[in-house]
Amino acid sequence: MKRAIGFIDSGVGGLTVVKEVLKQLPHEQIYYLGDTARCPYGPRDREEVHKFTWEMTNFLVERNIKMLVIACNTATAAALKDIRAKLDIPVIGVIQPGSRAALKASRNNKIGILGTIGTVQSMAYPAALKTLNRHVEVDSLACPKFVSIVESGEYKSAIAKKVVAESLLPLKSTKIDTLILGCTHYPLLKPLIENFMGEGVAVINSGEETASEVSALLDYHNLLDATEESVQHRFFTTGSVPIFRSIAADWLSMPEMEIEHIELGEGK
Amino acid sequence: MKRAIGFIDSGVGGLTVVKEVLKQLPHEQIYYLGDTARCPYGPRDREEVHKFTWEMTNFLVERNIKMLVIACNTATAAALKDIRAKLDIPVIGVIQPGSRAALKASRNNKIGILGTIGTVQSMAYPAALKTLNRHVEVDSLACPKFVSIVESGEYKSAIAKKVVAESLLPLKSTKIDTLILGCTHYPLLKPLIENFMGEGVAVINSGEETASEVSALLDYHNLLDATEESVQHRFFTTGSVPIFRSIAADWLSMPEMEIEHIELGEGK
Q: Which of B161, B166, B169, B101 has the alpha carbon at shortest distance from B129?
C-alpha cells in the first residue's frame, strides 16, 4: 500500500498546503489531521501547542506516514525542531518555505508578516528570514480574528472584508513590498488581503514553496511515489465533520472525501 | 571560516545556477569548479563522464565544502545517485529541480527538453518527470552545438541566433507549452530560445528551482550561514582563466573574482 504524506494543522488551514502538494504531486497519498476542537492554537502558550502538536504527530506516525508536514505556523514555531530531531522520517514546517518565497518576491527586502499571536511572539519568521538574508527588515502583525473567520466558513463575507481592513491598517504606513501569510488559514482570505494592500505588495502563500520542498525532500530520500497503485486520501478532524467537509470540498474541489472524527489528548 | 557550497560543471554553465543561489542566499560562500579543458561532456560516454564528475567532486570535497551541487545535467544523469550515496554531505543535481519547475509551469503536461546528447540519451528527464506526474508527455531534443557557442563567449552573436533557430525547428510542430533548458549552459542562450519559440512556450531555467532546493536542504541539515564572517568565493577552471573570467564577470556581474587554473585527472 502507498505510504501517505502526513499533514497536521490546528484546523482547516493546512488544506491550503495540501492543495499545492496535490497540484505538484498528483499521485501522492495524503493523510490530514486538523485539531479543530482545540483551534485556534494562536493564543495558547508555547508548551501547550508543543504538546498538542506531538499528539497530532503521533496519531499520523502510527498510520505509517513517510513524511510529516507541520502545515501550521504556530505549531511549526513551537515544535518543528524537536519533532524533526526525534522522528526518523523527513519533517518540514511552513516558516522556512514562506520566508524563502518572500525573499524571492521582494525587491526592497522590507517584508511584512501576518500571523497568530503565538507565531508573532515566537519571532520565528524574523529569525528564519535572517538566516537567509541578514539585511531584511521585518514588520510583524498579529491578526487574532482571522482564524475564527476561516474556521466558521465566513471567509468570503462582508464581515471578513471589514475585519481584514481594520486589522491590516497598521501595515498601510510601512514600506513593505511583500507580505507573508504567516498562518495557513490566511490564504482563504487572500483575495481580501490583496485587495486591501493594493498592487504594490506581493502577498505570499507559503503553500506553493512548501509543496516544492515536500517534492525535493521526497526525491532526496527516494520516497517519491507516482505508481499507479490506487490512492486513498484520508482526512481526520477532532471537530465537526460537516463543517470540515464544506470548507475542504470548496477549497480542494474534491467532491468525495473520506473524513473521520477522532479524539486527541484528554478527550481520547 | 565559512564552509562553502561546492558547484561542479563541465565548464561555465553551472554559473547560471550560482547566480540564482547568490540571489537567494547572498551571504553564502561559493566554490566553483568548471572542467573547461575537457568540455563538452555531452558527447562523451557515461563512464567517462562519471569518472570526470568524481574527479571534480573529490577536488572540492578536499576543500571542505558543506554541500555539493552537480550543476551540469550530463554529470547529474551520469553520477548523482552514486555520489549522493557515497558522500556524507548533501548532494543535489539539476534534473529534479528542472523537472519540478517545468511541471509547475505547464498547463497541458506536454514538456520539451533541450539537452546534450548524453543527457538526452540517459532518459533522465523523462524518468524524473514521471516520478512526479506519470501523465506527462515528453519531447527531447539534443542540441550538440549549444555548449561550444556558450563556452566560446559567442552566445549573443548572429551565429548563435542562426544555430538556435535551426536546432529548435523540430519542436515548432509539437504541442509543448513548456521547454526545459536541460543543460546549465543554455540559459545564456535563453533570450534567443524564447524569441524563437514564441509566447506560448514557457522556457525553464532550472537555476531558480535548484537554488530553492539548495536553500531548503541547507536549512534541513542546519547548514545555512548568513553570519557576518567574510565571504571569499573561489572559482577553479581546468581551462583558460581569461575566457572563464570574461563570461563569469558578464553573467554574475562580479567585477573582481578569484579564479585559479587547476589540473584534473591525467593532467594533474
A: B101
